[in-house]
Amino acid sequence: MVRALTESDGLQPGYVRGGRSRALRPVLQPSNLVLGEWRSRTEEQLAGLTVELIHSRAPLFGEPLPAAALQWATALTATVLPDAQPYPRLYSALDGVLAAIEAAPAARGWAVALVRYELLLLAELGFGLDLEHCAATGRNDDLAFVSPKSGVAVSRVGAEGYEAKLLRLPPFLTAGGAAEWDDIVDGLRLTGHFLQRDLLIGKGAEIGAARARLVDRLMRAVA
Q: At 145, phi and psi to the nearest 5?
């Protein structure tokens, strides 16, 4: 069975005859862009799916870091989104992330986009973080942390004495601009905490392993 993300109809499952064949395996590689046609006799029946390759990203799977990023982004999306519900913003954002990985295999060129995609995914599924004001003071300046319980930002003043219990909020998520490696790692820790708590619990070890591979390879790249 294949699950493909469409712009107007969300995730759509389908059975591809001969999907494990030598001819179709490269076509069905995660992150590829395909033209699909679904056909079924009844609504209850799993639709048969025929695919035509439009654009392949298969060559990137020969490079460990881009491969881990592509696998994680597509696996996350396929795991947490419900079938047949459109998420056009996520469709566009995921397409942008995959294109960024393809255009700049070095992580600095796409890691920020990946963190932003994970934040958008949390928000689209009802678990968005509040990064616009401080949970302690109500002000919107000097935000540097996030509460791991409430998902609300905390300023340096509001966090005084509790820094070790909070998650760091990297500046690029509030002020934009480029990100240093430490900021990228902090961003991944931030989104990883809320993804695991709110969306991935009970989803099995495989999805967690995909993210662990990505973070491990990113840390090696940083070192």
A: -140, 170
